[in-house]
Design a protein that fits this description.
This protein is mainly beta. It has three helices and 18 strands. The chain has a 14-stranded antiparallel barrel. A hairpin with an 8-residue loop joins strand 16 and strand 17.
């Protein structure tokens, strides 16, 4: 019952937060600033997610990994952002924070099938730009551009893992087998996730003329997007080399993981409303006088396909130390939106993101004697050409990241707390472009029940 209440109030908190706002002026373009989803753990790995498969940490980006979870898992996180915007000789620092994700995976401890329910942002919009210009015969005027809102997604998914076994034989000095151990040689996992995408983005353009004898003009364009997207995932793990001691304990192991997530192109429903008004400013408050146009239309546009593939190499040495190196490539053909019936700001470009991550664990859980030796330490980097173009140049984002996962104190379950930090830049301070220097801080929780105190138990007696 306690677990159900935790999940319920976390969902209420996330939903009541409403649409999340971006801080970036680049969120003016397309469908807003695309939100970097995933667990806090994968954020510390540079965003590597298609191939990452940890039995104690939920990875909502690849639904096929649900079958590998050790147990039921509830996961949520918080993101804090500090953004410094520089244009010419002027700069400004903005700060914001929001709930980053809500995910709940249900899985029995001895089952190879897991189920997922979650909610997270998809894109955000939040900018305020003012430019002063002199208009012949009118005088000084301020051109104001403001945006707010965003798109969210709520999803359900499932994943199943299939294990393929082999027997490892223990031989005596004469080469005769005296015992054997049944171990997993390889496994393949398949999964799917259905996302309902919904939200509103509001773009406001206004002309504020200094001469009060002229009437000001304001145009408010509200875009509502809603429909379904599907994610299909696959994950493969292959044992490369395994060594056991005479006591049947694992001495060392090397294995490789391959992962992929495919999102096919889908038609999305869209509603557009554009209101053009005459306004007057009184005591700093903009008041509408009259509306010259109020047009509402409906249609569709195609959300382009997305392909993400990755590889991870793991090694556990004889001292119990665990090393993992993982890489991802993520491509989405955003240029397809330029041919749709929907008028979006800017000429969008295809994107191909490159992510690289490294993780180190001093000791496995069963051998660790203190909290630090049980913790996971991460480093990552990514290079992201965004879909935004300014002056025919594609805006690029690059970042480095670090992360830490530690077990919750005094907990006998596999529950963990995650920390992550990302430092990066986007764009450059040249011409009409701006440079953004950002620092993102992440904190998250993965809560799992102790195996003797399961959250969901079917009653035998009423």
């Amino acid at each position: 019952m306690r677990a159900k209440l935790i999940i319920f109030f976390s969902l209420i908190a996330l939903v009541s937060n409403g649409q999340l706002n971006s801080l970036s002026p680049y969120s003016l373009f397309g469908i807003g600033d695309l939100y970097r989803t995933g667990s806090v753990a994968t954020q510390g790995l540079g965003g590597v997610s298609s191939t990452w498969n940890d039995p104690y940490i939920l990875n909502p980006e690849n639904p096929s990994t649900l079958g590998s979870l050790f147990n039921t898992n509830f996961q949520t996180g918080l993101r804090l952002q500090s953004l410094r915007i520089t244009e010419g000789n002027q700069s400004q620092t903005l700060n914001a924070g929001n709930i980053d994700q809500f995910n709940f995976a249900f899985k029995k401890a001895k089952s190879n099938t897991g189920y997922l329910f979650g909610l997270s942002p998809f894109s955000t919009s939040g900018y305020s730009i003012t430019k002063q210009e002199e208009i012949d015969g009118v005088g000084n005027a301020a051109f104001k551009y403001d945006g707010s809102g965003g798109i969210s997604k709520i999803y359900i998914g499932a994943g199943h893992k299939i294990d393929m076994y082999k027997y490892h034989y223990f031989n005596d000095k004469n080469g005769n087998a005296y015992d054997s151990l049944r171990v997993v040689q390889r496994s393949i996992s398949l999964g799917g996730k259905v996302n309902y995408v919904f939200g509103n983005i509001k773009n406001v353009r206004a002309i504020d003329i200094a001469d009060v004898t002229f009437v000001d003009t304001r145009s408010t364009k509200t875009t509502r997007i809603y429909d379904f997207l599907v994610d299909l995932g696959v994950h493969y793990e292959q044992d490369l080399r395994t060594r056991y001691g005479s006591d049947k304990r694992l001495n060392s192991r090397t294995f490789v993981q391959l992962g992929a997530v495919y999102t096919p192109k889908m038609k999305m429903q869209i509603e557009l409303n554009e209101l053009v008004e005459s306004t007057v400013t009184s005591s700093g408050v903009v008041l509408p006088i009259d509306s010259s146009s109020n047009v509402t239309s409906e249609g569709t546009f195609v959300m382009p396909q997305n392909v993400k593939v990755g590889i991870a190499l793991h090694h556990h040495n004889k001292n119990g130390r665990q090393f993992a190196l993982a890489a991802d490539i993520n491509q989405r053909n955003w240029s397809e939106l330029n041919n749709s019936d929907v008028e979006l700001v800017g000429l969008l470009k295809d994107t191909r993101e490159y992510s690289l991550g490294f993780q180190f664990t001093p000791k496995p859980i069963e051998d660790a004697k203190n909290m630090l030796s049980r913790s996971n330490y991460r480093l990552g980097a990514r290079l992201t050409p965004t879909y935004v173009t300014v002056q025919d140049e594609q805006i690029t984002e690059q970042a480095i990241s670090a992360g830490l996962t530690i077990p919750l104190l005094s907990s006998r379950s596999a529950s963990k707390i995650h920390f992550g930090m990302e430092i990066g830049t986007r764009g450059k301070n040249e011409g009409n472009m701006i440079r953004e220097d950002f620092t993102n801080f992440y904190i998250g929780f993965s809560l799992s029940p102790f195996y003797k105190n399961a959250w969901f138990v079917q009653r035998k007696y009423e």
